Request: fold
Amino acid sequence: MEMVNALGRRKSAVARIFVTEGTGKITINKKDLQDYFPSSILQFVVKQPLTTLNVAEKYDIKVNLDGGGYTGQSQALRLAIARALVKINADDKKALRAEGFLTRDAREVERKKPGQPKARRRFQFSKR
Reply:
């Protein structure tokens, strides 16, 4: 198998990944997965597509992560991994789609409006 690349986005985070056959090593910005995401919950989120298909020990994944916070980055990475697995084997698409791993979460932060302290919050109204 040659190298397969995919892209995942969530909020303002972008994950570019390169998948090759290997031993299950995930490297994010030249750091190990456990070093980059110390939280076990975020590690679980990243590995969800791999564990769903039982291929966690089959592929090495090299990741360039940019922008956003740690939650957005982990979910962007999950989408990228799912897309790469579909490129490798199209038969896996149905299982990943059923789990919701191929759906791009399009929610973005709403911009702050002038004359307001936040996007929707207004300053306190005083009648008198």
